[in-house]
Predict the 3D structure of the following.
Amino acid sequence: MKNILVVGSAGQIGSELTLALRNIYGGDQVVAGVRKTKPSEKLLETGPCEVVDALDKEGLVSVVDKYKVDVIINMAAILSGTGEKNPMLAWDVNMNGLINILELARERKMKQVLVPSSIAVFGPTTPVDNTPQETILKPTTIYGVTKVAGELLGDYYVKKYGMDVRGLRYPGIISHETLPGGGTTDYAVAIYYEAIKNKKYTCFVNEKTRLPMMYMPDCLKATIDLMEADFDKLNYHCDYNVGAMDFTVAEMAESIKKHIPDFEISYEPDFRQDIADSWPNSVDDSAARKDWGWKPDYDLDAMTEDMLKAIGEKHKKGLI
Ligand code: AKB
């Protein structure tokens, strides 16, 4: 039996991961930790929900002790776009929040910590195609700097204290339940909403921008499969590359046009273009495939069909 706390449960990944974990382990076994964002009805109805701030160690301790938490997942982070606007905030939340969680897990001898990383660990000097598992990590964003440090810190806790700390390098995650906030890859979600609402979208990166992406069902599968993998089979700990698909914005628009022929796209690149240009086109995830059987299910067209259907239904109901 596991007692899991998801810190950052109201966010894009946290909101769906909490529900997926409750389906597997039972509602009472998974505490949703939220800070400022109002949790959805689904989160409130399906299990415990507590106000948790990764920067408030005492608050964390009381929730961990109240629910006898022995697995902690840290989904609280300031993403790349917001990070460039406020680097000190990104450092504070991403590093001090993480060290609070790792220390608490060490003090309470927890069974497992999940520390997500990102393709943001890579930078302009990293090989851009099929980026290897082990390669140059010289990011040019503060978010990337904190993610490299987070991977190293997690690995340090594994080696120094014999703890079970794991993490994956998420590509851009695309979903229709909870909007992402402050990331560079947010355009890949916004494009679907705008296609349904207005049949047009102005993208903040140019048409040739190609990035690794993943649909939420694959993101949940990757996260849960890594959590459940046999620790002894892991050749890495906090830094698994996970790929699913990669495409340019122009290719996304073409995929949408198969369903909405009069969809129009235009481009007004802003500061996030430089961030996107510093990240890989695609990643080599053979280590994840070999060590814990990673295999994605969705490609661009399958995801587009699903996204447009789900967002179309929300639109019909007047929810967006
Ligand atoms: C971002 O764009 O900052 C995130 C990420 C790739 O980690 N979605």
User: Anything to note?
Assistant: The two ends are 39 Å apart (CA to CA). The longest helix spans residues 87-107. The pocket of 2-amino-3-ketobutyric acid is lined by residues 79-80, 118-120, 143, 170, 172, 183-185 (CB under 6 Å).
